[in-house]
């Protein structure tokens, strides 16, 4: 019989359901026909996936000089304009860039391989 591949969502579901059930791990596995070794490993798999999801990610950007810039860096009180895929422009303060890029990373339908321009 071929080995079943479990998705992360299935693993999360079964780990949560097992913990809430009050059953032993072995009892839960027998009830739902899950290999004991699998359910033993899944809490670690779920924890690793959640840790990776929270980890910082590199977002490629290109920075170009513009009038009002000193040594290629924006003046501290001057807003910067982000040119995003799809023709979207966004202005923000340099101090907000970390939060803006963090939010952009979590936008559905975008990927970290997309390139953003900062002017």
UniProtKB/TrEMBL annotation:
Domain of life of the organism in this record?
Answer: Bacteria
Q: Which GO terms describe its molecular function?
A: sequence-specific DNA binding
State the protein's name: IS66 family insertion sequence element accessory protein TnpB
- What is the phylogenetic placement of the source species in the record? Bacteria, Pseudomonadati, Pseudomonadota, Gammaproteobacteria, Enterobacterales
């Amino acid at each position: 019989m071929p080995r079943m591949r479990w998705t992360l969502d299935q693993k999360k579901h079964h780990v949560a359901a097992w913990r809430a059930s009050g059953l032993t791990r072995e009892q839960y596995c027998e009830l739902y026909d899950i290999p004991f070794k699998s359910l033993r490993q899944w809490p670690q798999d779920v924890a690793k996936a959640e840790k990776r999801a929270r980890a910082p990610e590199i977002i490629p950007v290109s920075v170009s000089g513009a009038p009002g810039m000193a040594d290629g860096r924006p003046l501290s009180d001057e807003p910067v304009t982000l040119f995003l895929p799809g023709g979207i422009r966004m202005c923000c303060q340099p101090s907000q860039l970390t939060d803006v890029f963090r939010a952009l990373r979590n936008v559905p339908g975008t990927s970290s391989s997309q390139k953003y321009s900062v002017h």
